[in-house]
Amino acid sequence: MPTALTELGEVGLQYFKVLHAGPKSLRKETERLVFLAEVFGNGPVLDAISDVMRTGHVGAEYVEYVLRHQKGSRQPRRR
User: Which domain holds residue 56?
Assistant: First the structure.
């Protein structure tokens, strides 16, 4: 798991194990997840990853969908 995402803990580790087994580009997925963590914060991204993994899907596009649509239109954190 990329060091920028180490705060995602065991859920993040499991997510990357599943992601690694698939055909998706790890570099692109990592870049997108780091971006989402910077915009929304690690807590919401961790929650979204957990939700996505429960459905059997893996991919940053699913995580982003959950963050933007299923979680009540969460607003990105302010800097």
Answer: 24-73
- 60-68 contacts at long range (C-beta below 8 A, 24 or more positions apart): 60/28, 60/29, 60/32, 60/33, 60/36, 61/32, 63/33, 63/36, 64/32, 64/36, 67/36, 67/40
Q: How far apart are CA 3 and CA 69, in angstroms?
A: 27
pTM: 0.71
> Which tens digit of pLDDT belongs to each residue from 29-78?
889 999 999 999 888 998 999 999 888 888 899 999 999 987 655 555 55
Domain count, the chain: 1
